[in-house]
Structures are given as C-alpha cells and as structure tokens.
Amino acid sequence: MATVLQAIEEQFRATGYAGTSLDDVAAATGLGRGSIYAAFGDKHELFMRSLSEFCERTEARVAAALDGPDDTALERLHTFLLASAQVGTGRPLRRSSAVCATASSQRSEMATSSPPSTPTSWRSSWLPRHADWM
User: Across-strand partners of 92?
Assistant: First the structure.
C-alpha cells in the first residue's frame, strides 16, 4: 500500500490537487477507478491519506535525524535544517532561505528553551508561526 500511496503523492505533487483527476491517479498507480474508490473513497480522502502517509514518513525521518544525546542536539538540528533545505540535485528549495533564516534566528532560543512536552506539540506552536512561507 505504501508504494501506491507514494505514487499518489507523486501525482499530486506533479499536477496539484485541482489538476489531479482519478484517471490520473489510476494511471499512476495501475489501479482501476473502482479499486481506488473502494480503498480510499473520494479524491479528498485519497489526498488526505497520501498526505498523512507523507507526514508519518517525514516525522520518522526527522526523529531519526535528530535522535541523540542532549549535548549535541543543537548541532544535529542545525545540520538537519541545512540538509533539509537542499533537494536531491543540491539546489536549494524555493523557501530554503526562510528555513535557514528561521534556524539561524531561533538557534539561541532553542538552546535555552525546554523541549516540547510531546513529540507532536511542535505542530501546534511552530506551524502557525511559519505558515506564511510554507
């Protein structure tokens, strides 16, 4: 199922939500329209399931990259943010400067602040503050 969801994600990335039809998804996955409806429901549910899978993969990758002892946490975070601002070809993402600027400006704040109380609490505090460049 993960491979199907990744194919769906790639289709949405390539043509956007509005530009993606169920026929596009069927062609990308090799599944029939009926199978897609049976497995995922409508287009919105299909997109949300794909997005959820992407978020789970991303959270696992981030957790693995940032895992380690407290005394090197800031350096791991800095390295991770710089690496995240690059794509496979090594070219910066369109908004990479915002990511790097955020990392730099909050570096001292992160060094002195307490970690979030839960792994997902960053979403409720960090995302609203940075939604303008996402």
Answer: 86
Domain with CATH 1.10.10.60 in the chain: 1-67
Q: Are 24 and 11 in contact (CB under 8 A)?
A: yes
What is the CATH code for 1-67? 1.10.10.60
Q: Report the alpha-carbon angle 47-14-125, nearest 5.
A: 55
Share of the chain above pLDDT 70, in %: 62
Residue 31 carries which DSSP code? -
The CA distance from 76 to 110, in Å, is 12
Tens-digit pLDDT profile for residues 76-114: 888 888 877 764 444 444 444 444 444 444 445 445 555
